[in-house]
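A further point concerns the way the authors explain their paired sequence and structure data. An entry of this sort, consisting of the sequence and the corresponding backbone structure tokens, reads as follows:
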Amino acid sequence: MHKEPEPAWKPQPQAAEKPSGVRMALIGLATCVIMAGAGAHFMGGGHENSNTPAAENNTEDHNNSANRMAIPLTLIASQKAAQTLAKSDYTEQEQADILAGVKRRDIRLVAMPVYDATGAGGTITLICGPWHHTVHLSPTPQTVILPITISGNVDIIPASDPGPSGIGSGAITVFGPQTLPIMYKGDILPLTVIAQ
């Protein structure tokens, strides 16, 4: 008996699977979210230590965008500006000044819900140019209306003694809750608001 040798095994060519459009979109979205998170993480890593309030500290280093943490917040439509400001804690004169800026398109209003992220409590002051807003932090988010200029710079400083554990605040962004870096006495947390 003569046995014929079996032919060598060769992998069969298969049609290359093409990922679906939905799958590619999800992969792209996930990549964008990861990159944005990494950028915000690295941009928000630095704190500036200063004993002067942010409104009085107008040096170039303080306004350097490389030291600012970017957070996306919800934009309030200009048609709803008057109604929104009427429900805020701004004085009548501040409301009139802010509304005039909104009409000139120098100012945009954003909603920034802030909360106590660590359970330690405390009070913070949010500074947007000449406007200051003080918030007593609690676990329940409190929405602060911020009048931001085109640059969108907002600074947060401790308004109460942070103690050894610091003040840990958080903000609800368009992507969900985001814990902000803990602040200690003399710290300034510089933020760049991206209005969406």
Notes: The first helix runs from residue 21 to 43. Confidence is low (pLDDT under 50) at residues 38-64.
